[in-house]
Structure of Phenylacetic acid degradation protein PaaN, ring-opening aldehyde dehydrogenase:
Amino acid sequence: MGVQKIKSFAAGAWVAPDAGARPIEHAVTGAVMAEAGAALDMGAMLDHARNVGGPALRALTFHDRARMLKALAMYLSERKDPLYDLSFNTGATQKDHLIDIDGGIGATFVFASKGRREMPDAQVYLDGPVEQLSRSGTFLGRHIAVPKRGVAVHINAFNFPVWGMMEKLAPALLAGMPCIVKPATATCYVTELAVRMMLESGLLPEGALQLICGGTGDLLDRLGGQDVVSFTGSAQTAAMLKATPSILAGSVPFIAEQDSLNAAILGPDAAPGSPEFDIFIKEATREITVKAGQKCTAMRRLIVPDPAPVIEALSARLAGVRIGDPRSSDTQMGAIVSASQRDDVAAKAAIIATEAALVFDGSAPEGFVAPRLFHCADPDAAQQVHAVEAFGPVSTVMGYRDLDHAAELANRGEGSLVASVFTRDPDAARHLAIETASHHGRLYFNNRDSAKEATGHGSPLPHMVHGGPGRAGGGEEQGGIRGVMHYMQRTAVQGSPDILTAVAGDWVPGAQEIDAGEHPFRRAFDTLQIGETIHTAPRVVTLEDIEHFAHFTGDTFYGHMDEEAAAANPFFPGRVAHGYLLLSFAAGLFVDPDPGPVLANTGLDNLRFMSPVSPGDAIKARLTVKRKTGRNEEYGEVRWHVTLTNQDGEICAEYELLTMNSY
Ligand code: NAP
């Protein structure tokens, strides 16, 4: 096989490597199998993204982009085999592919789904509720978010060529930002194939995705305040790139995910023979061997009450791990990505060995790295075991005296992506959470109750924040819509109710009411206007109504039934109507009975009962279209703002009613 030329995709064209290209070796054979790197016109790439990709993405709504992501994920799902095939060359096994390739596609699906459920079918995202900035409500505030107008530059590590790209690409595209992806050169050929597929799908607008295989030239020098850099890799590279003058001068957000000395704590209750002990040993084995330990979230430090039984059980498990050709279905642990990384793991393990004894040293075929387990007898005095990340199948066991000591040791990593705790003791879990959460981006608790469904210490999930403070880079990725927010500008908007309604596409009390003439429940989803309002006729609430409702439902609370006891209650003047009776009467006042576009009432949000309603009071409802969110081709969700008032105009109840309306 010849040397494969790994191309970049720049300003709409594929560009082959040139004389400055770097060689890429096969992880198993060590042979040079590919090369990548060309002198690209970074200015043209940025222009293409900013002037072509950005406007095209911003013309879409969040839902359009979410649908695009779903289609992209489905497209890749149908083409996994060629990606698996290529990925074996990185040293990854079929099981590793599930994390990288299936994991990347899975993350894209989750962002697609969250985009549809949690973001509006609009170009403006609302961040939080309306803030009352004035006494009579004529001047209000709220936070909105819109996509930044620049480029999202994604610089990724070598260990996850597909997941590493997709976990950043999905939230950036959902936000509406064009992306330039720069994978690590060692495994960029897998990323290149995935990018090629996505471009061939025709699902992405022109300019939304570009690829740099090789060096980034003067790309970073050209960035400005509307751009975002999201970096994954070593702390050293992060520190260097963060200090680029243009990044500092332009306050360019620089999200860094870097080295991490992740801890796993075995709870004091998890003695040998307990299910928690076994779960810990199983997960630790997996964390040490998956991706041959080249995982940013891998368990590097095992903090346990008694090291001896842990070392014994873990060594027995590690000794049985089959290491070798990643293509073989028997293989449980594949290869380290390159000879230089193998050397790096050996050098880092040698540093750890200055403070810890090697207690398990596995054997592996020539060219592979065997798992190694260290025991650090004095973790308080040790420095290196808490600071040096051997990016391979290497872990260190250390003992703790009590929970506070365990927390102190876990925090000695000075910021990590994840710490796990294997315990069934809720008090121990709570204590450790309070003592350690400040130092870890994610806390993962597992025990016999959750083990079957737990997703694993080492698995970042698109729903949950991935990133960690301090040494881990201080970044935050994923975490559902939190991850999308990195690519948007949050802006405080202040103004009158009408202005806020127009800007946000969300009716706020005090804004103009539109009288459409016809009952809004008779109107199809697409013809309803934001602000459309009906006012119902009043209905008098009688004592008979209250008694009837009380006996019918069984809710004979004294506040509704006993005049004297109710009057003694600080909230009631005497017997009052049930809040649920008021809601039911309100429905009776505004519901349109015949079959029509309203398919179902799907819920009620932000309900507050305010002034109590006494027998003889007359209530009426105001119902206003607050927000509309398309769900599918057949129907969409309408959020109605409902206010119930009494004969004196006092508000008795306020809530948001949700209905599904057909088109
Ligand atoms: P690395 O050497 O720091 O490289 C990371 C990325 O930076 C690569 O794409 C690399 O490209 C690029 N890069 C290096 N110098 C650059 C420069 N001057 N200008 C622009 N880009 C530059 O890290 P790695 O060896 O790929 O990854 C291993 C490290 O990543 C480990 O420390 C691991 O803990 C960390 N990691 C962290 C996470 C996380 O989520 N926190 C995930 C995975 C890995 P080239 O390959 O072309 O040099």
